[in-house]
């Protein structure tokens, strides 16, 4: 006798079979929809010339279809979202950055060569001594345009000034201005967008375009394409030759015509870091300071956290829970809030720090303009932000130390200092080592602190790129890519690649010290 589903009168095993079949069908439809969406992205990126992104989504869509359709790969379906996320948000940006580091990609070299050529060919210039003054006339409900060069006079047919599309209309020669009323300058300014779309064709075939707020003039195409692909500049009578080694059109005298296009420059960005004196000097100074900053931050935060954790383990200390809560509070406050508060406290003119120092010692340090004081301020603030983390680590490790060791030390006459350096510190330093390396790697790329507190200032004099004495490598890279006038993305990508190699090396060391096989 079958057990039936009460609502449908079906055997239970059959109902379960139908549920599983509908679930598989819905899953296949969802996968098909995702594959189609990814293929649409592939086509969209390909049509826009972004072949790397097109390749990324092509691989993602193909792998999605293969993994979720082959039964032999069923076990990989559960880990596929994590692997796909790793590829899209970690591996691809890394490979893309490395690829940019071998190019001259910058604000001057953004477009493709075809788009650069098209932009240059779209340029025009005004023919000398051939401008027509324009006047708008209102004839009842009609609006006409009068062009007058002194020797010639033309008028248009009635215009629709609400139409701002580009269009060509014919004009006719006249001897007298229209009988209507000339409109004031305010009306002309309001109609500017519509007038810019006009292409006025004279009876002899000359095309006139708007050349100023009150003028139309014959506008000639500036560049002509030669048989070898070069461009002839009709206005300046010169030839522009495409140079595919630097990504610019170049004149005979070596002048580069912007914009340019990205080209492969090999290891030029990497060699520039170490061979260009204007870049090598600031880079090495920032490189050394980055290591010093990260190392001193780890030392200071560990020292403060370890001492406080040891004091909190003192048996005779009353109110440990209250002290523990108060000491961990800085860890609960968002870092950017604490940084901005400290920025106000260290203000050279109105900050509380200078007010106290002035009242006690009669000094007002220039925290944001003196390089060494600015660096000291960074270490002070970062120690405040980082010591609660070390405090929590040390508290947990100290509590795991057997009390028998301290009792044996007391029998031998050991005191608190002896216990601190002979028992506590040696026993916790080994398990702390991987965490200290992780803290070093984090502070090596501590962009938020630099950006919010000093912005990298004060600047390094003589640097050809934006560089400050308090910059870390990561903030230095950001300033080159987004704050420099040239926005040299290729150079910034090369520095970012070096940062990745350094951090990856520290991560490998961390894994080795943690006895994890890689």
From TrEMBL:
SUPFAM superfamilies, sorted: MalF N-terminal region-like, MetI-like
Subcellular location: Cell inner membrane; Cell membrane
Bilayer topology: Multi-pass membrane protein
Coiled coil: none
Family according to the record: Belongs to the binding-protein-dependent transport system permease family. MalFG subfamily.
Subunit structure: The complex is composed of two ATP-binding proteins (MalK), two transmembrane proteins (MalG and MalF) and a solute-binding protein (MalE).
The name this protein goes by in its record: Maltose/maltodextrin transport system permease protein
């Amino acid at each position: 006798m079958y057990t039936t589903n009460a609502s449908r009168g079906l055997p239970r095993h059959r109902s379960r079979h139908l549920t599983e079949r509908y679930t598989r069908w819905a899953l296949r439809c969802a996968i098909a929809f995702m594959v189609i969406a990814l293929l649409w992205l592939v086509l969209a990126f390909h049509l826009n010339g972004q072949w790397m992104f097109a390749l990324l989504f092509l691989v993602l869509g193909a792998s999605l279809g293969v993994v979720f359709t082959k039964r032999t790969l069923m076990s990989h379906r559960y880990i596929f979202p994590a692997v796909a996320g790793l590829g899209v948000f970690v591996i691809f940006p890394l490979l893309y950055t490395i690829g940019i580091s071998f190019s001259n990609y910058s604000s001057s070299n953004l477009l493709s060569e075809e788009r650069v050529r098209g932009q240059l060919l779209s340029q025009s210039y005004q023919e000398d001594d051939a401008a027509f003054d324009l006047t708008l006339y209102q004839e009842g409900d009609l609006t006409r345009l009068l062009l007058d060069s002194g020797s010639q006079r033309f008028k248009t047919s009635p215009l629709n000034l609400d139409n701002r599309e580009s269009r060509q209309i014919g004009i006719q020669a006249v001897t007298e201005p229209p009988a209507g009323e000339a409109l004031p300058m305010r009306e002309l300014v309001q109609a500017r967008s519509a007038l810019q779309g006009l292409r006025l064709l004279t009876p002899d075939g000359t095309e006139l375009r708007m050349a100023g707020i009150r003028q139309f003039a014959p506008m000639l195409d500036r560049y002509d394409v030669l048989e070898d692909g070069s461009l002839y500049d009709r206005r300046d009578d010169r030839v522009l030759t495409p140079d595919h080694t630097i990504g610019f059109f170049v004149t005979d005298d070596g002048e580069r015509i912007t914009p340019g296009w990205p080209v492969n420059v090999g290891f030029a960005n990497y060699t520039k870091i170490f061979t260009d004196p204007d870049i090598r000097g600031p880079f090495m100074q920032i490189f050394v300071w980055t290591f010093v900053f990260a190392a001193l931050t780890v030392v200071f935060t560990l020292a403060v956290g370890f001492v406080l954790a040891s004091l909190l383990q003192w048996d005779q200390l009353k109110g440990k829970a209250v002290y523990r809560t108060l000491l961990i509070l800085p860890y609960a406050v968002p870092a950017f809030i604490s940084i901005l508060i400290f920025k106000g406290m260290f203000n050279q003119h109105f900050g509380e720090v200078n007010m106290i120092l002035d009242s006690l010692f009669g000094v007002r340090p220039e925290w944001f303009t003196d390089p060494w004081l600015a660096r000291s301020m960074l270490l002070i603030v970062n120690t405040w932000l980082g010591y609660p983390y070390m405090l929590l680590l040390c508290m947990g490790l100290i509590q795991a130390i057997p009390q028998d060791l301290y009792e044996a030390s007391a029998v031998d006459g050991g005191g608190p200092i002896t216990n601190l350096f002979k028992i506590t510190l040696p026993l916790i330093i080994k398990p702390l080592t991987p965490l200290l390396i992780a803290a070093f790697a984090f502070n090596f790329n501590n962009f938020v602190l630099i950006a919010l507190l000093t912005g990298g200032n004060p600047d390094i004099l003589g640097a050809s790129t934006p560089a400050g004495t308090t910059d870390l490598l990561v903030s230095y890279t950001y300033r080159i890519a987004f704050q420099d006038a040239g926005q040299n993305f290729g150079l910034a990508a090369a520095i970012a690649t070096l940062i990745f190699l350094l951090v990856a090396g520290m991560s490998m060391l961390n894994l080795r010290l943690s006895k994890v096989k890689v």
